[in-house]
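lol ok so funny story. i was supposed to be doing the assay writeup but got distracted and ended up predicting the structure for this chain instead. priorities right. anyway since i did it might as well share w the group, maybe its usefull for someone
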Amino acid sequence: MVNWEERRQLVKIADLYYEENWTQEQIAKKMSVSRPIISKALQRAKEIGIVEVYIKDETMQTVSLEKRLEEEFNLQDAKVVPSHSNKADLTVQSVGRAAANYVYKNSKHINSIGISWGETLTTFVQEYPYELKEDIKVVPLEGGMGRKKVEIHANQLAYELAKKMGAEYSLLYAPAIVESEELLNHLLSMEDINSVIEEGKHVDMALISLGNPFENSTLKSLGYIDDHEIQQLRDLGVVGDIGFRFFDSLGNKVENPFDKKIVGMSLDDIKNIDKVIAIVSGTYKADALLAMLRGGYIDVLVTDEDTATTVIRKNR
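and the output, tada:
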């Protein structure tokens, strides 16, 4: 219990500090006490409810989501941006810009960066600022050749990112998916292809996004999979993919007909990279994102508020 005199003193100190904007040093001098005593009095005022501190800002919700994501999934870092209702393209742009800012600020001691493919990563590269980092090399994490949406393929993104960084880059001269296992083995025996895949396995930082083969599927729009194959994946328990590697709700690899036809990183390869940054936007990817978080593949997450909220709700 606090007696009347002590309470009056705490109120007076709190009023000078919070309402009159006095410093703790000024209050201490006025009351002829030490500054630590004023500091303890302010803390005591909070403890007994004389002072209640509220943070009034629209970003507080996203900061709270970042903290929950970091704690629930043991992430090194999480960045959450506000979602734009009914404007998915603006949300993707915001996520891409936040990711670009994060990588720009956190690539000081990085010697190599691997990048996957997709619309979200394309936006990330578009938002990345020009700089000069000649000591960095950018590597595609899977193949990607063809005539449809060339701008979102890993080779193109590696080239564009390297150009903005003033960095070196490698190119993987092979399709993402080939026609047969025999052709895959032939390609992997080629030094120019195998060496780039090995480079990808040992990058310091990997930039990935996630796909949902059942909704807004880029794989389908590019003609990589058809409706029959999509149903097969659904029957196998697939919830998403990273670079054509499919996984279930716990992030476990799902054996499927594509596995022996893909030129690029495996899920285990991605998991072994020191720092994996997932750049994800859209609630339709929430199941895939939750699976990757549960599987421990992601070290840093950049996403939007709606997607983050959906993932946390689904994890209950």
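Residues 51 and 213 are 52 Å apart (CA to CA). The chain has a mean pLDDT of 90.
back to the writeup now i swear
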